[in-house]
Predict the 3D structure of the following.
Amino acid sequence: MGLLYSGDTEYLNGTVPYILEGLKLAEPVAVAVPGRNLTLIEAALGDSAADVELIDMTEAGRNPGRILPGVLLAFADNRPGPVRIVGEPVWAGRSAVEYPACAQHEALINFAFGDRELRMLCPYDRTRLKGDVLADVGRTHPTLSGADGDRPSGEYAPDAVVEKYNLPLPEPKAAEAFRFDIARLSAVRNFARERAEESGLAPDRVEDLVLAVAELSANSVLHGSGHGVVRVWRDEDHVLCEVVDEGTLSDPLAGRRPAPPGQIGGRGLVLVNQVADLVRQYLRPGSTVTRIYFRP
């Protein structure tokens, strides 16, 4: 359910009774919202806050691709029966480059949980978020809530949102390309490490970038066309790496859903989402473009 709110009072009126109702029903409750809003809710809950899992979404969900496997499913899958979550993945501080991944995340939630007993409330600040973002709320949530109560969304169309933001990514001004195949997997890691170090990425983040490149290039070889191209460059805010291959990634939840226990493989994209600050993909038949972002 999407909650459209304006100001702190509407925010608390929309979230706190929802949380307390869950606690009264003995449902496990998690609240994953940006830090300031988390503080507001914690204070309003008083002693009841101790019974709620409180998560700062600006940290745990900085990369929208991390929210499903690392926050929502991580909470729900460890608890039997119905669970209740307040999740706020979109806030006014989100950048334009992050938002498409946020919208796709919101569209995929219902598919990710399937028939699981889940109640989820997603707050959106209608005074601070842009009109196109607010328009997407009705497309990604079957029910909308606000000061006037709840109503069904006549615009609900999550598949259309996933496709709407499946967009070609802007070309970098200058980025050296390295072509790889199975014989050059070690070389592609060395290439990524050298370019990341030259770009000024912190040493621990260099290791994260190299790990992500290793996973993506291995996926290209094993599950794609057997070869691919990697590029590394820097813009004003990030060190970026892009892996392109001729494979077709047909599962929109790839990388957003943990592999079942005992399954061999299927963890590479989840790991990439875990270590990167942002992951964007452009998917079409015969081509998969994965771009990963790291803050210097």
Q: What stands out?
A: Residues 53 and 154 are 32 Å apart (CA to CA). The domain at 177-294 is CATH 3.30.565.10 (Heat Shock Protein 90). The longest helix spans residues 203-223.
